[in-house]
Amino acid sequence: MNMNVAERQRECHSQLLSSHDARDLLNSVDAFLFDCDGVIWKGDTLIDGVSQTLDMLRSKGKKLVFVTNNSTKSRRQYAKKFQSLGISVSEDEIFCSSFAAAMFLKVNNFPREKKVYVIGEEGILEELQLAGFTGLGGPEDGKKTVQLKPNCLFEHDKTVGAVVVGLDQYINYYKLQYGTLCIRENPGCLFIATNQDAVGHMTDLQEWPGAGCMVAAICGSTQKEPTVVGKPSTFLMDFLQQKFQISCSKMCMVGDRLDTDILFGKNAGCKTLLVFSGVTSQSTLHDPSNSIEPDYYTNKLSDILELLGP
Amino acid sequence: MNMNVAERQRECHSQLLSSHDARDLLNSVDAFLFDCDGVIWKGDTLIDGVSQTLDMLRSKGKKLVFVTNNSTKSRRQYAKKFQSLGISVSEDEIFCSSFAAAMFLKVNNFPREKKVYVIGEEGILEELQLAGFTGLGGPEDGKKTVQLKPNCLFEHDKTVGAVVVGLDQYINYYKLQYGTLCIRENPGCLFIATNQDAVGHMTDLQEWPGAGCMVAAICGSTQKEPTVVGKPSTFLMDFLQQKFQISCSKMCMVGDRLDTDILFGKNAGCKTLLVFSGVTSQSTLHDPSNSIEPDYYTNKLSDILELLGP
């Protein structure tokens, strides 16, 4: 079946955000959930008009929540990043997947005496510590090497009860073996993925392998599937709902990725708004191979402000 | 459905190798294909009676072929290993997955002017060179690090036309990004996996993440599936058949792994013999979750010699 762009747009149930839709959203939604990279900023640069749009939403009494799959930073580190970009956001408003991993262990009563092995970066270790858990691995094990020699036994801590895997620019064979041994040999050891994003904008100019790369590596060696705590899994949403006591139908998820942000919002029954200021283009949205359709789409977050008018 | 061991053995169509079967095999088979680790040796130690068994088979005029998924060595390096263990095997009799990767490129007329990026070890680079191809990466890139800084562009060679991924104890983020960029951005770039073994005996005392770990990582970041050239894919078998002009029904595959060796033999229509001198135990073979059944099973290769008698 060959369709031209106009036909594909008619097939798609998403609507280009209109002034009417923007007013409707503002009237029907109590909380706006934002992805960060590609919506709020690109790399270390704020996207045009974001600050004014957030101010307007706050002035209307809307709850703002920032939900990111990036696990390399903690909530505290994210609050600092917002501050450095001139936006005042409190730690309580930030839900990064490093925090999600720690909260997953907490709500599942992970025993304090057990340890958590981390294939990932500083953010995960900091969130684990803040939640009262003992983390091992992380950046420190990035310097370690292995000895593939006869009679050499690679020892691992038998009290590790969970392996958390996120984006790790210091990934190596030592960590892969450590995590694999814990999951294969420690009875009941959990395998938690912060997220499974294939790639992400680790630098402004390029995409790089994301947590999905490291998570897949451990799936490959253990032949096990992880519990995912970041988007699009429902764990974070359930946690958010419990914390803020807002019904999902009164929330709008704003994001630049179909398979994480928009799917996350749709899975939970939120309204969804796709912005083209990140990794997704209009042609990807309307491509016949795409089955994830947001309620609305627009170029960038601040379009809401313009559409509402003075 | 609960079955005891005896019942499960009756359900299984595999037979414990008998004297009659051994004689039958010797009469009906022209070529014996052997996996190496777990059949011929364990780590750097020859398994009991292997040397005498191979001598007997050669004396009966049988063709011997050694087929291993290990890609870290080249054929030349394997011939040296056999020699160091006191067994005379020629390079022509060895089919390792590093060689398979180079042959795959050759039979598919991979252009000589294009380059091959290697996530893997020395064996792959050596086989590529012997086949007349230009390899990049490998152990050398194990020392490289990345710069995740604004305005920093990670450059990759646009003339890379294939990425070969095998077991790599020097895996790092640099190589993951390099391979990912080639597959995502170089038009038509091939993604070749030497094999997908989850783990392997990198040391005598322990299993370690195998090529399946590194291959999965690249699947995770590229969202692409590789072409597998090692066991259990049929590429090596087609190649072997063409080279030796022996029908598969006249071959017997001997191995210690169900999902690679035995499946490889069965896929091609060879006779299959599972030995318990490697990673598979009798209980795994007879476990209800196992669906891969060899024609015969026995403890170790030299049982053939004993069963045939003096």
From TrEMBL, chains A, B:
Cofactor note: Divalent metal ions. Mg(2+) is the most effective.
GO CC list: chloroplast
Keyword terms, alphabetized: Acetylation, Chloroplast, Hydrolase, Magnesium, Metal-binding, Phosphoprotein, Photorespiration, Plastid, Transit peptide
Entry EC number(s): 3.1.3.18
Location of the active site: D35, D37
Pfam families: Hydrolase_6 (PF13344), Hydrolase_like (PF13242)
Subcellular location: Plastid, Chloroplast
Amino-acid positions noted as binding Mg(2+) in the UniProt annotation, renumbered to this chain: D35, D37, D256
Molecular function GO terms recorded: metal ion binding; phosphoglycolate phosphatase activity
Broad class of enzyme this protein falls into: hydrolase
Residues binding substrate: K231
InterPro entries, per the entry: HAD-like_sf (IPR036412), HAD-SF_hydro_IIA (IPR006357), HAD_sf (IPR023214), PGP_euk (IPR006349)
Transmembrane intervals: none
Task performed by this protein: Photorespiratory enzyme that dephosphorylates the 2-phosphoglycolate produced by the RuBisCO oxygenation reaction.
Record's protein name: Phosphoglycolate phosphatase
Lineage: Eukaryota, Viridiplantae, Streptophyta, Embryophyta, Tracheophyta
